[in-house]
Structures are given as structure tokens and as C-alpha cells.
User: What shape does this take?
Amino acid sequence: MADVEYLQSIIRPHPDFPKKGISFLDIFPILRDPIAFETLITHFVHHITSQTIPKSLRKKVDIVVGLDARGFLLGPIIALRLGASFVPVRKRGKLPGECVSANYEKEYGADTFEMQSDAILPGQSVIIVDDLIATGGSAKAAGELVKKLGGVTVEYLFIIEIMFLKGYQYLDAPAYSVIQHLE
Assistant: This one.
């Protein structure tokens, strides 16, 4: 696919960041390029409307959940294009009101995600979006929050998947990534 190759050519690796032995894949060059950013959003929306929605029980997406913080850059735009709501998942203590929480392990340690308790109604169809899936811990925690509120995760979306870590195997719904990174 030409759009995938194009997006892959724009992502910049940063060896030994944030710590030695980790190669950080920087998506921000995509966001700085309006054509690349539009290509990415259009790619996601096309995938959702041509693959995800036809296979879903309700034949629609009610909510797009974005993970703190890069999921906030993608989620609202995808939600608007789908006519869906956007719901943020934030780190503990960053959201007002009553929240549900889920703990998770990530590459660099443990953390807690929260979602406002009234953000999702039982039975609503949800897509969860983030920039990257590595070990799957943060995405799994977001899926647990959706489930606690009675929502149904129909798919997880990522720009990049770190293939050798196999984080998708811990998720409760199918996962789609635009770029599969082998290293």
C-alpha cells in the first residue's frame, strides 16, 4: 500500500530513548506534515468503515476512546469523521468527577488509567486508539475500563505495532496497526 509506505518513511527512530536499548519511534513528523496527517486519518477511517463496522454487531461505532496522550491527537478527529463521541483515558488524578480505574504494566514500570464513570453506556460500540502497541499493557487497561462501564470494544487501532512484543495477544478485541515494526 502506497499510503503505508509513505507514512512509514516519515516516522523517525530515536535509538536509546527514553533509555538505553529502546528505539523510540517518533510519530510527530507525521503530525507536522498536513498531507501525511490527513493520509493517516483517512487510512484509519477507511479501515473502520470498510472492515470494522461491517463486521460489528451494531454496524456502527458509538465512541472512540483515546489513550493519554497521543491517542488524544488521533481520537477526536476519527470520532468526528465517524459521527461518534470521543472519550479520553487519562492517567490517575487528571479527570474530574467519579472515575473507574485500571492498573497496568508498561515497558518502564506500572501506572493507572482512569475514565469518567458516565462516559460510556452499556452496550455502546467502542474503538480504542493509540499511537503504538508494544507490550499491550496500556491498551489492555483501556479495554478493561470500557468493559467496566458496559461498553463493547470492537477494535483497537494503532499507528505502529512492535511485532516481536506481541502486545495484541493480551487484548479482548481485534487490533489493527498501520505499520508493523519488526525490530
